[in-house]
Backbone:
Protein backbone atom coordinates (compact mmCIF):
# COMPACT_ATOMS: atom_id res chain seq x y z
CA UNK A 1 0.00 0.00 0.00
CA UNK A 2 1.18 3.60 -0.54
CA UNK A 3 3.03 5.32 2.27
CA UNK A 4 1.24 7.95 4.36
CA UNK A 5 1.64 11.44 2.96
CA UNK A 6 0.05 14.85 2.99
CA UNK A 7 -2.58 15.05 0.21
CA UNK A 8 -2.13 17.64 -2.55
CA UNK A 9 -4.16 20.87 -2.53
CA UNK A 10 -7.76 20.37 -3.63
CA UNK A 11 -7.67 16.62 -3.00
CA UNK A 12 -10.81 15.55 -1.10
CA UNK A 13 -10.65 13.57 2.10
CA UNK A 14 -11.54 9.92 1.61
CA UNK A 15 -14.61 8.25 3.12
CA UNK A 16 -12.30 6.68 5.68
CA UNK A 17 -11.74 10.13 7.16
CA UNK A 18 -15.53 10.64 7.50
CA UNK A 19 -15.39 14.39 6.93
CA UNK A 20 -14.53 16.89 4.24
CA UNK A 21 -12.43 19.99 4.57
CA UNK A 22 -14.40 23.11 5.43
CA UNK A 23 -13.02 24.83 2.34
CA UNK A 24 -14.50 22.13 0.09
CA UNK A 25 -17.92 22.51 1.68
CA UNK A 26 -17.72 26.29 1.23
CA UNK A 27 -16.70 25.84 -2.43
CA UNK A 28 -19.82 23.71 -2.96
CA UNK A 29 -21.93 26.34 -1.19
CA UNK A 30 -20.57 29.10 -3.43
CA UNK A 31 -21.41 27.05 -6.53
CA UNK A 32 -24.93 26.56 -5.15
CA UNK A 33 -25.18 30.32 -4.53
CA UNK A 34 -24.16 31.07 -8.13
CA UNK A 35 -26.84 28.69 -9.40
CA UNK A 36 -29.56 29.93 -7.04
CA UNK A 37 -28.90 33.59 -7.81
CA UNK A 38 -28.71 32.92 -11.55
CA UNK A 39 -25.34 34.68 -11.75
CA UNK A 40 -23.75 34.97 -15.17
CA UNK A 41 -20.20 35.38 -16.44
CA UNK A 42 -18.87 38.73 -15.23
CA UNK A 43 -21.23 39.02 -12.25
CA UNK A 44 -19.55 39.90 -8.99
CA UNK A 45 -19.73 37.69 -5.90
CA UNK A 46 -20.31 39.12 -2.41
CA UNK A 47 -17.24 40.53 -0.67
CA UNK A 48 -14.91 38.40 1.42
CA UNK A 49 -16.35 39.64 4.75
CA UNK A 50 -19.88 39.00 3.47
CA UNK A 51 -19.03 35.45 2.43
CA UNK A 52 -17.26 34.79 5.75
CA UNK A 53 -20.38 35.92 7.59
CA UNK A 54 -22.74 34.03 5.28
CA UNK A 55 -20.94 30.69 5.75
CA UNK A 56 -19.53 31.25 9.23
CA UNK A 57 -15.98 30.35 8.27
CA UNK A 58 -12.51 31.79 8.74
CA UNK A 59 -10.74 33.90 6.14
CA UNK A 60 -8.29 31.02 5.60
CA UNK A 61 -11.04 28.50 4.80
CA UNK A 62 -12.81 30.95 2.51
CA UNK A 63 -9.65 31.82 0.61
CA UNK A 64 -8.85 28.14 0.11
CA UNK A 65 -12.37 27.61 -1.29
CA UNK A 66 -11.89 30.61 -3.60
CA UNK A 67 -8.53 29.21 -4.70
CA UNK A 68 -10.11 25.85 -5.61
CA UNK A 69 -12.91 27.51 -7.57
CA UNK A 70 -10.50 29.85 -9.34
CA UNK A 71 -8.18 27.00 -10.35
CA UNK A 72 -11.26 25.17 -11.67
CA UNK A 73 -12.24 28.09 -13.86
CA UNK A 74 -15.50 28.82 -12.05
CA UNK A 75 -14.54 32.24 -10.74
CA UNK A 76 -11.86 34.86 -11.29
CA UNK A 77 -10.22 36.97 -8.59
CA UNK A 78 -9.40 40.49 -9.77
CA UNK A 79 -7.22 41.97 -7.08
CA UNK A 80 -8.54 45.32 -5.93
CA UNK A 81 -11.84 44.78 -7.72
CA UNK A 82 -13.43 41.64 -6.31
CA UNK A 83 -14.31 38.09 -7.30
CA UNK A 84 -16.30 37.47 -10.47
CA UNK A 85 -18.11 34.56 -12.08
CA UNK A 86 -16.04 33.18 -14.94
CA UNK A 87 -17.82 29.98 -15.99
CA UNK A 88 -21.45 28.94 -15.57
CA UNK A 89 -22.12 26.39 -18.32
CA UNK A 90 -20.26 23.58 -16.57
CA UNK A 91 -22.17 24.16 -13.34
CA UNK A 92 -25.30 22.53 -14.77
CA UNK A 93 -23.43 19.23 -15.00
CA UNK A 94 -22.84 16.90 -12.07
CA UNK A 95 -19.91 18.14 -9.92
CA UNK A 96 -16.53 16.36 -10.11
CA UNK A 97 -16.55 12.78 -8.89
CA UNK A 98 -14.97 12.05 -5.53
CA UNK A 99 -12.53 9.34 -6.54
CA UNK A 100 -10.44 9.65 -3.40
CA UNK A 101 -11.76 6.44 -1.87
CA UNK A 102 -11.41 4.40 -5.04
CA UNK A 103 -7.73 4.63 -5.90
CA UNK A 104 -6.31 1.32 -7.04
CA UNK A 105 -3.87 0.44 -9.77
CA UNK A 106 -6.79 0.13 -12.21
CA UNK A 107 -8.16 3.56 -11.21
CA UNK A 108 -4.85 5.20 -12.05
CA UNK A 109 -4.61 3.37 -15.38
CA UNK A 110 -8.19 4.38 -16.24
CA UNK A 111 -7.30 8.00 -15.53
CA UNK A 112 -4.25 7.69 -17.80
CA UNK A 113 -6.40 6.40 -20.67
CA UNK A 114 -8.99 9.13 -20.15
CA UNK A 115 -6.28 11.78 -20.14
CA UNK A 116 -4.92 10.56 -23.46
CA UNK A 117 -8.34 10.81 -25.09
CA UNK A 118 -9.42 14.13 -23.56
CA UNK A 119 -6.23 16.15 -23.23
CA UNK A 120 -4.96 15.46 -26.74
CA UNK A 121 -8.10 17.10 -28.13
CA UNK A 122 -7.86 19.89 -25.54
CA UNK A 123 -4.34 20.75 -26.70
CA UNK A 124 -5.39 20.69 -30.35
CA UNK A 125 -8.27 23.12 -29.73
CA UNK A 126 -6.14 25.32 -27.49
CA UNK A 127 -3.65 25.79 -30.33
CA UNK A 128 -6.51 26.99 -32.53
CA UNK A 129 -8.14 29.31 -30.01
CA UNK A 130 -5.50 30.67 -27.63
CA UNK A 131 -5.21 34.44 -27.34
CA UNK A 132 -1.94 36.23 -26.66
CA UNK A 133 -3.06 36.72 -23.06
CA UNK A 134 -3.77 32.98 -22.77
CA UNK A 135 -0.26 32.20 -23.99
CA UNK A 136 1.31 34.63 -21.56
CA UNK A 137 -0.68 33.11 -18.68
CA UNK A 138 0.43 29.58 -19.66
CA UNK A 139 4.06 30.59 -19.95
CA UNK A 140 3.97 32.47 -16.64
CA UNK A 141 2.48 29.49 -14.82
CA UNK A 142 5.00 27.11 -16.38
CA UNK A 143 7.88 29.39 -15.41
CA UNK A 144 6.66 29.38 -11.79
CA UNK A 145 6.70 25.58 -11.77
CA UNK A 146 10.43 25.51 -12.53
CA UNK A 147 11.28 26.92 -9.11
CA UNK A 148 8.93 24.71 -7.07
CA UNK A 149 9.91 21.56 -5.15
CA UNK A 150 8.43 18.22 -6.18
CA UNK A 151 5.53 18.36 -3.73
CA UNK A 152 1.97 19.58 -3.26
CA UNK A 153 2.78 23.08 -4.54
CA UNK A 154 4.15 21.70 -7.79
CA UNK A 155 1.11 19.43 -8.09
CA UNK A 156 -1.26 22.36 -7.64
CA UNK A 157 0.46 24.32 -10.41
CA UNK A 158 0.57 21.27 -12.69
CA UNK A 159 -3.18 20.68 -12.33
CA UNK A 160 -3.82 24.39 -12.89
CA UNK A 161 -1.82 24.28 -16.13
CA UNK A 162 -3.87 21.39 -17.51
CA UNK A 163 -7.14 23.04 -16.49
CA UNK A 164 -5.97 26.31 -18.02
CA UNK A 165 -5.44 24.55 -21.34
CA UNK A 166 -8.94 23.09 -21.06
CA UNK A 167 -10.42 26.56 -20.53
CA UNK A 168 -8.42 27.94 -23.46
CA UNK A 169 -9.78 25.12 -25.65
CA UNK A 170 -13.16 26.81 -25.32
CA UNK A 171 -15.28 23.66 -25.13
CA UNK A 172 -17.51 23.54 -22.05
CA UNK A 173 -17.97 19.77 -22.21
CA UNK A 174 -14.24 19.05 -22.43
CA UNK A 175 -13.69 21.47 -19.55
CA UNK A 176 -16.26 19.64 -17.47
CA UNK A 177 -14.61 16.32 -18.29
CA UNK A 178 -11.35 17.75 -17.00
CA UNK A 179 -13.17 18.93 -13.88
CA UNK A 180 -14.46 15.39 -13.33
CA UNK A 181 -10.86 14.21 -13.54
CA UNK A 182 -9.41 17.04 -11.44
CA UNK A 183 -9.40 15.27 -8.09
CA UNK A 184 -7.98 12.08 -9.55
CA UNK A 185 -5.46 14.07 -11.59
CA UNK A 186 -4.23 15.83 -8.47
CA UNK A 187 -3.59 12.52 -6.70
CA UNK A 188 -2.12 11.02 -9.88
CA UNK A 189 0.38 13.85 -10.36
CA UNK A 190 1.29 14.12 -6.69
CA UNK A 191 2.02 10.42 -6.36
CA UNK A 192 4.40 10.67 -9.30
CA UNK A 193 6.22 13.96 -8.71
CA UNK A 194 6.69 13.37 -4.98
CA UNK A 195 8.60 10.18 -5.83
CA UNK A 196 10.66 11.46 -8.76
CA UNK A 197 14.25 12.53 -8.33
CA UNK A 198 13.60 15.31 -10.86
CA UNK A 199 10.69 16.75 -12.83
CA UNK A 200 12.91 17.99 -15.67
CA UNK A 201 11.38 15.61 -18.23
CA UNK A 202 7.88 16.58 -17.22
CA UNK A 203 8.69 20.29 -17.57
CA UNK A 204 10.22 19.74 -21.00
CA UNK A 205 7.08 17.93 -22.11
CA UNK A 206 4.90 20.79 -20.87
CA UNK A 207 7.10 23.23 -22.74
CA UNK A 208 6.68 21.27 -25.97
CA UNK A 209 2.90 21.52 -25.64
CA UNK A 210 2.99 25.23 -24.87
CA UNK A 211 5.38 25.93 -27.75
CA UNK A 212 3.07 24.12 -30.18
CA UNK A 213 0.11 26.14 -28.89
CA UNK A 214 2.08 29.35 -29.40
CA UNK A 215 2.95 28.29 -32.96
CA UNK A 216 -0.77 27.75 -33.61
CA UNK A 217 0.07 24.16 -34.53
CA UNK A 218 -2.98 22.03 -33.59
CA UNK A 219 -1.52 18.71 -34.75
CA UNK A 220 1.81 19.45 -33.08
CA UNK A 221 0.07 20.36 -29.81
CA UNK A 222 -2.04 17.21 -30.00
CA UNK A 223 1.00 15.01 -30.51
CA UNK A 224 3.02 16.79 -27.81
CA UNK A 225 0.21 16.34 -25.30
CA UNK A 226 -0.25 12.69 -26.22
CA UNK A 227 3.50 12.17 -25.76
CA UNK A 228 3.39 13.91 -22.36
CA UNK A 229 0.37 11.99 -21.06
CA UNK A 230 1.73 8.64 -22.20
CA UNK A 231 5.10 9.36 -20.61
CA UNK A 232 3.30 10.43 -17.43
CA UNK A 233 1.49 7.09 -17.41
CA UNK A 234 4.78 5.21 -17.75
CA UNK A 235 6.32 7.21 -14.90
CA UNK A 236 3.27 6.52 -12.75
CA UNK A 237 3.38 2.80 -13.49
CA UNK A 238 6.98 2.69 -12.28
CA UNK A 239 5.83 4.20 -8.98
CA UNK A 240 2.85 1.85 -8.74
CA UNK A 241 5.05 -1.18 -9.25
CA UNK A 242 6.79 -0.26 -6.02
CA UNK A 243 4.04 1.28 -3.90
CA UNK A 244 0.60 -0.07 -4.78
CA UNK A 245 -0.49 -3.67 -4.68
CA UNK A 246 -2.21 -4.92 -7.81
Residues:
Amino acid sequence: MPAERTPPPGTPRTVKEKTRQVSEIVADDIIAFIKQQGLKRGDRLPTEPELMERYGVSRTALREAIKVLASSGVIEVRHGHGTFVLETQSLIVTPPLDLGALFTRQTYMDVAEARTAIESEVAKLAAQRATEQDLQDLERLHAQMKSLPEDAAFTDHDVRLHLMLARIAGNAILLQMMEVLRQALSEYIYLTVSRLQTVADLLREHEAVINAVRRRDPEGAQLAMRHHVQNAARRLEQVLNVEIEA
In short: Confidence is low (pLDDT under 50) at residues 1-20, 90-102. Strands lie at 75-78, 82-85. Residues 218-243 form the longest helix (26 residues). Residues 47 and 82 are 7 Å apart (CA to CA).
